[in-house]
User: Fold these one by one.
Assistant:
Number 1:
Amino acid sequence: MTGGKGMRLRVNPIACTGHGMCAELLPELVGLDPWGYPLVADGPVPRHLAEHARRAATACPTLALLMEEAPAAGSVVSGAGRRRGGRHSG
Amino acid sequence: MSTLEITGVASRPVPRLLAGLSYYRPAGLAEHYRCYGPLPALGRRFIDVVDASGLTGRGGAGFPTGRKMRLVADRRGAKVVVANGAEGEPASSKDRLLLTRLPHLVLDGIALAAAAVGAAAAYLCVHEHETDLMSWLHAAVAERDDPVPVQVTGIPGRYVASEQSSIVQHLNGGPAKPTFAPPRPHERGVRGLPTLVNNVETLAHLALIARYGDHWFRSAGLPSAPGSTLVTVSGAVWRPGVYEIELGTPIGQVVAQAGGPAEPLQALLVGGYFGAWLTVGAALPLPMTHVALKAAGGVLGAGMVIALPASSCLLAETARVVRYLADESAGQCGPCVFGLPALADALADLAFYGGRGRVLGQLAALVPLVERRGACRHPDGVTQLIRSALRTAAADSRLHDETSPCRGVLREPLLPVPGENA
């Protein structure tokens, strides 16, 4: 698992307290909102940034930045959750 | 079955759930059996019937109930069933009506769900401040002889406390606040066990599906959205209240059932405070289904329809509700903690003081900063409400932003906001 196409970044918004370390270490993929909380780029983590992304996730003081495998298409419940989120996005 | 011939529960399209409704008091167990018939004992195979019935969750999200039951049933070991009767939506009364008048329908549903998924424990959750309701429910539980014990439990009366992960965390001794997923309740819920959380109306439908079957259930509603559902109609209608309708009934007919408009209408809020405003012209012909409402930019949610009179200000009503929802944030996620008050401030400016030509732009910038950034749907529900308000009252919001508030802000508030006048 060296990152690559299957990995994505996700923030646990409950754990995140807005230290901003992730935006400091990974400005290519993480910006900050006006209140100092991370705005993470959608989509997979590009291969050449995988190591930086992993380091940013490890450096988060509250371990709120998660580097995880993109969910499988067949997963019923996460699919439902994503659809539900999508309903409110547009 | 003679009971059915007498009462005709199974022969009419609607009412179904509400066929046994008696005013003034809850139906006792004997009366309940007289009206709906005895409860057949069904085990795990009941899930196939629920699948075939096409029942979807009546708490708002509309997830297929059979599939949800199977997700829990397929796991190993003991499970838990949670009946969610903590109706957080201020404009909804349907769950309370079921629990106060027809508690045995809900308790039948709990017993069926518990047997189907293999549960060892069951909880019936209502708002903890409703002490009368809780004592009636204790009495109803004591009347029965269910193999899986049902514990009536109080949940804090806050808006986000009735979200399913909030309830699970509360039952585990934590705060009644949403948790980060995964794990979801069906993976690791109450006491770490796979947990089925269903709205009480969903469970009440199970009580009838077990008795009369999936074909009967599908004989009401549309093939794509079968069955009946409870709706709460309020606002400027002559007879506000809870009604049972076939899914797919046009919203106009629902309004007519509630006595029709009491004054000329401007818009309808459908789906509750996480729902969406729709213009009268767009809303009235729309069938009440998840799919049709979604296509029109709305939400069926838990079936609330609120009629807003033409003389009210849609923006002022929305601003009050958004302030309430901002205050109801669980306070866990930064974008919700900071974003919702910022949205509420901007909307209050727009609605009550005039936007000085800046607020519409501010709102457009704030909405994407909040959306999809919380652990639960709370912030997304708020932005959906705001988007729909600005879309439905587009001309009025420009007037508010560029000139001054409309005369509607002087009218008495319509949408219920708990604690506003306390």
Note: The two ends of chain A are 34 Å apart (CA to CA).
Number 2:
Amino acid sequence: MTDIVMEAKNVYKNYGKTEVVKNVSLQIRKGDIKLVFGPSGSGKSTFLRCMAMLTMPDKGEIYLGEECLTKPGVDLNKARARIGFVFQHIYLFRHLTAFGNVELALRQVLKLPKEQARERTLAALKEVKVFDCINKYPAQMSGGQAQRVGIARALARNPDIILLDEPTSALDPELTGEVIDTLRDLANEGTTMLIVSHEMPFAREVAEEMIFYDEGTILETGTPEHFFNAPDSDRAKKFMTRIIYKTTRE
Amino acid sequence: MDVGQEIIFLLGGVPLTLSISIISFLIGIAIGLPLAFTRVYEKEVSFIVDAYEKIFRGVPEIVLMLMFFFGLGLYFPFPFNNAFFVAAFVLGLRSGANQSQIYRGAIRGVGDEQMIAGQSVGFSKWRAIWHIMMPQVFTFSTPGLGSEYALLIKDSSYVWVIGGLAEIMTRSVWLKNVPPYDVITPYVFAAILYIALTFPVAFWLDRWGNKRKKNIGL
């Protein structure tokens, strides 16, 4: 029995002739919080979507626990139900309230009885502190509230892992704070997470490992301290300098 | 026949006009929705949808009705000798082609990201369509569906060519042929009736759609 929750082995993804993901391998163990960062357009989001099999990798293997998701014939819907995914642009179901957004998959995918689904939905919304939005539609919420409902939607299914694709990049600094607080709570509870983010103070606080991703591949990995003090590669050094300068100016 | 009697006689055709239109509208939904989703999400067979749309949007309803009633009716008296069936069926087939285009535009309007979000929580493509896309697609489609309904009310008048159904148009043609052989009044009243049957529903559908869109921020 292994405690590896998710693993990517030599994953490749091309869009036309552009190689977006090149030979990426990554292991995430139970309770890990790993943070992927790197320049925009470097393929981080595509890689994350490949991990959830929302985008099919061209080559390589993705494992969820011991199940190989890239093998033909695997029930991907069942696998995706075990993965929580939080989108950069939130993507709540617009025709449903916050409650409906969280409850839908519990009832229709996990097939939980009504009362149990209701309890879990309420608990998830409480956990991310958007209980007051319970009857609001996405359009009636602030960006921060909507993103926290997005996190509740991912969380409520008790997934093996939560993948978060730049969950704060579409939000202003104040709303970013709300979402970061939620993620910090999840981190403290031991939730396994792979986060694509540029929130460096947050990364320093909660991430066990940071992964510098550039031009479609993992260029360097290390602890937050490693990246904040002395990254190995010039690309990572330059990127860290720029991003720390930007963060201190904000 | 005086004017009052003429109006009452024409009003007697309203239930039939409405039933032909509503049934064909429902047939149109049953055909249009799967066609639209197939066209967007099952690219390999989208050419079949394309061909269907081209045929049923391209051939006039009147030709189809004559073809089905007199042509197919010759070889398959049941059900094609039934004027009501042919009217609702032909208009339904045509409406399916129109509605497919309306829904396709709506699917694009809803956006692929809703589908991806649905799949991310564990839905299969077709279950995401059912639970997530469909309710939003209907909201997006309301202006188009209002126009389609109005079109069906109007096109139900073609049933006059196959005869045997006393809907508004057929009744106005009959009226013209009875003393005092007034060729204007029956048609004017028929026209007023058609307007009265189309606009309120189209207007209501449009308003409902806009209100719903506003609620959910579309």
Note: Residues 3-215 of chain B form a domain with the MetI-like fold fold (CATH 1.10.3720.10).
